[in-house]
Structure of 4-hydroxy-tetrahydrodipicolinate reductase:
Amino acid sequence: MRVALIGYGMMGKIIEQKLLAKGHEIAGIVSMDRLQSINDIRDPFDVIIDFSHPDNLESLLAYVEIHHTPIVISTTGFTSEQVAAIKHAALRSPVVYTANFSLGITVMQEVLRLITPILEDSFDMEVIEKHHNKKLDAPSGTAKMLVETLNPDGIYAEVYGREGNGKRQKEIGIHAVRGGSIVGEHSVIYAGEDEVLEIKHEAHSKHVFANGAIKAAEFLVGKPAGLYDMHDVLFRK
Ligand SMILES: NC(=O)C1=CN([C@@H]2O[C@H](COP(=O)(O)OP(=O)(O)OC[C@H]3O[C@@H](n4cnc5c(N)ncnc54)[C@H](OP(=O)(O)O)[C@@H]3O)[C@@H](O)[C@H]2O)C=CC1
Ligand SMILES: O=C(O)C1=N[C@H](C(=O)O)C[C@H](O)C1
């Protein structure tokens, strides 16, 4: 497959190496110091893989709106309006959008869906994520995705980085740690009376995300328009 790669930072560089090693081709790379826009790519491509910055989204979706090119959106830190625009684009183009391409987090979501209804009446739920000191957005996209899984109907208040005085309410606390070279850790803590259950995922290298994103791109080529996630990519081929 021929790929338009958006973003040439830590993830973009790993994706480039892996695509070439698998025999795929790169039609062009868009980044601050390379091609400025997807419209500058002259060679044809089958799919777009985006690991960049939310500021790129508008131009990417404008391109996809015209060409209906399959797109894998991996960037995090979008506003709710931007997420709505991604969903809208998926009405006319095939889109994989996920904040985390690892198998572990995909399975962790399944586990949370199963156990949260059993525990939530008697256990408090908190989310802790840890990442490297170069990460721009907080909390992580994955933490937000996990909170959506814990709180699909929005019945819990979402409290970011709790501080001050006052008893815990009907809420989910979300806490972001930044430091060193931590690749990505996500914990959901269910704290009950005299017992605590913690479900934790640790990514030990960025390769898990790159492998998942390439799988998602391979999955998307030839698919009809729609919004797909890693459950579709990994389990519903
Ligand atoms: N879904 C998933 O599984 C994963 C998602 N991510 C997400 O992917 C994104 C990229 O991560 P990572 O590679 O680690 O980050 P980096 O900061 O290393 O790379 C970001 C890239 O985007 C470019 N960029 C930044 N701002 C703009 C802009 N306004 N317009 C065009 N290009 C821009 C940067 O260019 P320059 O270097 O010149 O500034 C750089 O090439 C992040 O949002 C991260 O959270 C990361 C890992 C896994
Ligand atoms: O920026 C990162 O590095 C990561 N970002 C994603 C997120 O925001 O959840 C996924 C992963 O944890 C690494």
